[in-house]
User: Which sequence fits this backbone?
């Protein structure tokens, strides 16, 4: 692989000698194989995106009364109102992909042992490290990439729809375009999916480890220890560090990566209390790389993920199929 | 270089010792039948050879330590664990794509040719194929790999007799070239004995017999003894005596051919009969039964 040979020579070698080793891409094909098996990884977000678009079309007939007077509102209010649908699209798709990715991780190394196909995968010249890293790459790289494309595409369709709507209502299209951060939006989405993947890495890694380890019911093994830990801590120490840590790990990803006028948790609470329509904080979020990389929780999470993945590779090497 | 070289190969699961110090050397180009009852340690020994489980003792397969270098070893070793291991969700086309994508010695055109002889459709999922077709698919994939060692652990489990026969016919006619090494375990020993060059009996984690087929044929003989000669035959110390259609059939170890010819009809014993003669009754050894 390291020797460089002129292209025509390589080609003739392959043609002449059946023994000549063909170039292979074990990692790439191991990832492809995951997508063949787990089609819900892209189908579920695509279906949700379609539903969202459908809802947007239907919703266009019942617009908030403020839209009719859009051009007369203050610029800040216009910005909030214009950006809200894009933030909602992004949030719902992220949540969908997250759920799908969590269940994927839980099944990734358990399923192949359950149906004994691990014996087929292990009969191929693919190392356990490559196999596990390919499975990790699904929630860390593939799902974020799918999310970025899907969110951006959905937002684009919503944008086109709104432009048509604005035009049909006789509102100023130029004004609407001016109020939307058109270039910052895709950048923000890319930044969001990347930072969320890093933030959730220890969760994905934990689920992969359980998936490689559990003989049955990986879901129970993934969840029950944490329930036990928080319960024991609560009862014995009257504290809730574990619960707090878990909550921050699950819901703190956005706050860690974006500077906001108010923490996302408060916004979510407000949304619950007052209904989604009243919250138009979409334009308040700003990507904040420095905030993200200077947060020790980010790096603690990455370190935990690395350790858990090392353990997962160790287990994948030793675990045999489940049916004896 | 021997394909497989084991010295004191041992494997324990907790307190249970499945393989108790096996010494085995398999030269290139041999077709070895690993025969033994369930729980004898065959599969465990094979798992060690394939890098699927750690072990104690010395073991080199194609000069490599299988546990340390499974992924490299698998470039030159193929194995079929049994027919059920291709995942149900996998499309035939994707199975070919995957092997072509990760295996440097896979010949896609060859696999396509083997598959063209079957009724398997490219767009089918494995779950939609019959057991026999899954075995055909797996065999087509494996035979298209330019491997030095092929390990088959119960490859025809649960297949009907036509598929089993076809399976071994393809293996010998389309795959075996005299240079490759094949190791097979099966419960249908009588169906593969004609293709074997070597037989290894494993019982209770140990090798009970390790012989070439020629040596086996020269050493062991089964005689359907004429009723008049039964007493004389018994005096020669047979390993085992059984009744076949009312005639005594005695199995001898190392008695010269001329003597035996005078007692009755002489033939080479089947592997299963020999196993039973050497290692006890079929019920006790479990050769025909379940664990």
Assistant:
């Amino acid at each position: 692989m390291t020797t460089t040979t002129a292209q025509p020579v390589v080609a003739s070698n392959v043609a002449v000698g059946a023994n000549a080793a063909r170039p292979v891409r074990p990692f790439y094909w191991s990832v492809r194989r995951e997508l063949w098996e787990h089609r819900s990884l892209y189908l579920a977000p695509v279906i949700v995106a379609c539903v969202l678009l459908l809802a947007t079309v239907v919703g266009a007939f019942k617009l908030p009364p403020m839209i009719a007077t859009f051009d007369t509102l203050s610029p800040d209010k216009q910005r909030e109102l214009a950006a809200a649908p894009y933030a909602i699209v992004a949030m719902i798709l992220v949540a969908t992909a997250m759920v799908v990715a969590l269940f994927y991780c839980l099944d990734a190394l358990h399923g192949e042992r359950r149906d004994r196909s691990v014996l087929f995968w292990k009969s191929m010249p693919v190392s356990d490290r490559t196999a596990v890293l390919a499975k990790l790459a699904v929630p860390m790289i593939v799902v974020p990439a799918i999310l970025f494309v899907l969110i951006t595409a959905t937002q684009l369709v919503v944008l086109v729809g709104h432009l048509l709507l604005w035009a049909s209502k006789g509102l100023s299209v130029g004004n609407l375009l001016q109020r939307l951060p058109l270039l910052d939006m895709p950048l923000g989405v890319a930044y969001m999916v990347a930072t969320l993947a890093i933030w959730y890495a220890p969760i994905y890694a934990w689920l992969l480890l359980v998936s490689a380890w559990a003989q049955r019911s990986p879901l129970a093994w993934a969840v029950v220890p944490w329930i036990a830990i928080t319960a024991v801590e609560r009862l014995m120490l009257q504290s809730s560090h574990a619960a707090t840590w878990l909550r921050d790990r699950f819901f703190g990803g956005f706050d860690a990566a974006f500077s906001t006028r108010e923490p996302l948790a408060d916004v979510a609470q407000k949304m619950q209390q007052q209904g989604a329509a009243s919250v138009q904080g979409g334009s308040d979020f700003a990507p904040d790389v420095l905030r993200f990389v200077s947060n020790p929780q980010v790096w603690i999470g990455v370190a935990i993920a690395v350790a858990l993945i090392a353990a997962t590779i160790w287990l994948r090497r030793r675990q045999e199929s489940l049916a004896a | 270089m021997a394909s497989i070289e084991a010295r004191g190969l041992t494997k324990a699961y907790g307190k249970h010792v499945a393989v108790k110090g096996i010494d085995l050397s398999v030269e290139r180009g041999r077709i070895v039948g690993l025969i033994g009852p369930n729980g004898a340690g065959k599969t465990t020994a094979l798992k060690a050879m394939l890098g699927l489980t750690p072990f104690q003792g010395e073991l080199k397969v194609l000069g490599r330590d299988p546990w340390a270098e499974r992924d490299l070893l698998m470039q030159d070793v193929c194995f079929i664990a049994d027919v059920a291991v291709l995942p149900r969700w996998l499309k035939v086309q994707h199975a070919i794509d995957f092997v072509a994508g990760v295996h440097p010695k896979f010949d896609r055109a060859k696999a396509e040719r083997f598959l063209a002889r079957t009724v398997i459709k490219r767009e089918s999922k494995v779950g939609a194929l019959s057991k026999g077709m899954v075995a055909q698919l797996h065999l087509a994939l494996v035979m298209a790999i330019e491997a030095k060692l092929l390990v088959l652990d119960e490859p025809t489990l649960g297949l009907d007799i036509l598929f089993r026969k076809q399976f071994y016919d393809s293996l010998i006619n389309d795959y075996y070239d005299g240079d490759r090494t094949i190791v097979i375990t099966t419960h249908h020993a009588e169906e593969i004995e004609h293709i074997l060059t070597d037989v290894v009996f494993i019982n209770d984690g140990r090798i009970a017999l390790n012989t070439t087929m020629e040596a086996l044929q020269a050493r062991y003989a089964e005689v359907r003894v004429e009723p008049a000669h039964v007493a004389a035959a018994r005096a020669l110390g047979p390993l085992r005596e059984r009744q076949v259609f009312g005639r005594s059939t005695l199995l001898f170890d190392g008695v010269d051919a001329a003597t035996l010819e005078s007692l009755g009809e002489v033939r080479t014993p089947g592997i299963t009969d020999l196993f039973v003669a050497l290692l006890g009754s079929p019920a006790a050894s479990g050769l025909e039964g379940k664990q």
